[in-house]
């Protein structure tokens, strides 16, 4: 029975994360905002950047909330915020800055409630040998979502940007709220209570420099993935003259999803810090290739490989946090690391600004390559430190 209940929680969490994955389709929404509503490219990137900042910032508080209140009420509240984000944005399309703030703030809170609660709840039902695999399973659907949503959203946007936003908001609210009712924590055992008490001592993760090293590496590497998520549709059009960028978005989403399983399995096999070094190195290599190619096929292949590594980050980092610091206060500890994703929201905005100034993405690629190489060196240093 506990095993059945654990898989029920894991599958419901995967379903919630599938809906949460709508954020990976933003480049399609952004293109529509430019073409139909007259926004500039950096204005269209701003809602996504603000969303990432709010999403990561509120992960600290929602992680704490799910630690103390349980996952179900936190996710249920999140469903309302997530749906309201798209619906409110639909009525503010004539005011780009107000629309960006509304969508970024509300969607950030809503998705933080969901993501901070689904993975910890599922992981608690399984043994330590399976935590990487379960983490990969639960977060995989987040990346997989855009593969299915991209063509659907493309069709909805043909009817109008406002209509597509409203329909998306309603679907998020209803779907997430229903699935939240299946999420629960397992009953506490004596071992769990001992770990929880130990985590309250002064020697907890907040005093460990490795937690802050995780933050810095997460910031330096996720910037690449979120920049491609925000600009991929336009990158395909500008760099290869390919006008069906939603196909590239779907490929990016599929590989992002596959990478989350791959990252969990890889980190279970070779260790967390070694897996980081491998994944970071691949992101850097793919950025070099992306700089050089002009063929849509070769660009899609490079983007697919990059997405595999980007997706892996969302399995490797939570697995590393729980392996080093334990399950107690996992929501708080990983929530702190996850704020780096919010800081990385700066990169999509910079990408849009640099594109407006230069008319290409070469400087953006160079910036991302530099940050990824720094993260790779940090991962090697971390691996040698313990």
From TrEMBL:
Keywords: Membrane, Transmembrane, Transmembrane helix, Transport. The lineage of its organism: Bacteria, Bacillati, Bacillota, Dethiobacteria, Dethiobacterales. The keyword Transport applies. One of its GO terms (molecular function) is transmembrane transporter activity. Residues 1-386 form the Major facilitator superfamily (MFS) profile domain. This is Major facilitator superfamily MFS_1. Pfam families: MFS_1. The keyword Transmembrane helix applies. The chain crosses the membrane at residues 9-29, 41-62, 74-93, 99-122, 134-153, 165-183, 211-232, 244-263, 275-293, 299-322, 334-355, 361-380. It is a multi-pass membrane protein. One of its GO terms (cellular component) is plasma membrane. It comes from Dethiobacter alkaliphilus AHT 1. SUPFAM superfamilies: MFS general substrate transporter.
């Amino acid at each position: 029975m506990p095993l059945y209940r654990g898989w029920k929680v894991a599958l419901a969490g995967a379903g919630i994360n599938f809906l949460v994955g709508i954020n990976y389709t933003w480049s399609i929404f952004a293109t529509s905002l430019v073409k139909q509503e007259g926004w500039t490219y950096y204005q269209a990137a701003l809602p996504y950047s603000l969303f990432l900042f709010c999403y990561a910032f509120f992960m600290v508080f929602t992680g704490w909330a799910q630690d103390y209140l349980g996952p179900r009420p936190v996710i249920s509240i999140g469903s309302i915020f997530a749906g309201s984000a798209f619906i409110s944005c639909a009525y503010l399309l004539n005011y780009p800055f107000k629309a960006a703030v509304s969508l970024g703030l509300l969607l950030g809170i809503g998705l933080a409630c969901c993501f901070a609660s689904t993975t910890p709840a599922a992981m608690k039902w399984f043994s330590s040998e399976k935590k990487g695999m379960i983490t990969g399973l639960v977060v995989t659907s987040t990346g997989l979502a855009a593969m299915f949503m991209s063509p659907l959203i493309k069709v909805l946007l043909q009817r109008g940007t406002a209509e597509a936003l409203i329909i998306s908001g309603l679907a998020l609210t209803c779907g997430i709220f229903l699935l939240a009712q299946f999420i629960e924590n397992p009953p506490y055992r004596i071992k769990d209570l001992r770990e929880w008490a130990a985590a309250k001592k002064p020697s907890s993760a907040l005093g460990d420099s490795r937690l802050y090293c995780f933050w810095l590496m997460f910031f330096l590497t996720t910037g690449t993935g979120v920049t491609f998520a925000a600009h991929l549709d336009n990158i395909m059009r500008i760099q290869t003259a390919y006008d069906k960028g939603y196909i590239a978005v779907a490929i990016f989403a599929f590989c992002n999803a596959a990478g989350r399983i791959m990252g969990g399995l890889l980190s279970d096999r070779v260790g967390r810090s070694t897996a980081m070094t491998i994944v970071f190195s691949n992101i850097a290599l793919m950025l070099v290739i992306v700089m050089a190619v002009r063929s849509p096929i070769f660009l899609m292949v490079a983007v697919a490989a990059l997405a595999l590594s980007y997706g892996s980050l969302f399995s490797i980092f939570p697995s590393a946090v729980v392996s080093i610091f334990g399950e107690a206060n996992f929501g708080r500890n990983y929530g702190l690391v996850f704020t780096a994703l919010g800081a990385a929201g700066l990169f999509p905005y910079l990408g849009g600004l640099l594109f407006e100034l230069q008319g290409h993405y070469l400087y953006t690629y160079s910036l991302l390559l530099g940050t990824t190489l720094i993260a790779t060196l940090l991962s090697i240093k971390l691996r040698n430190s313990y």
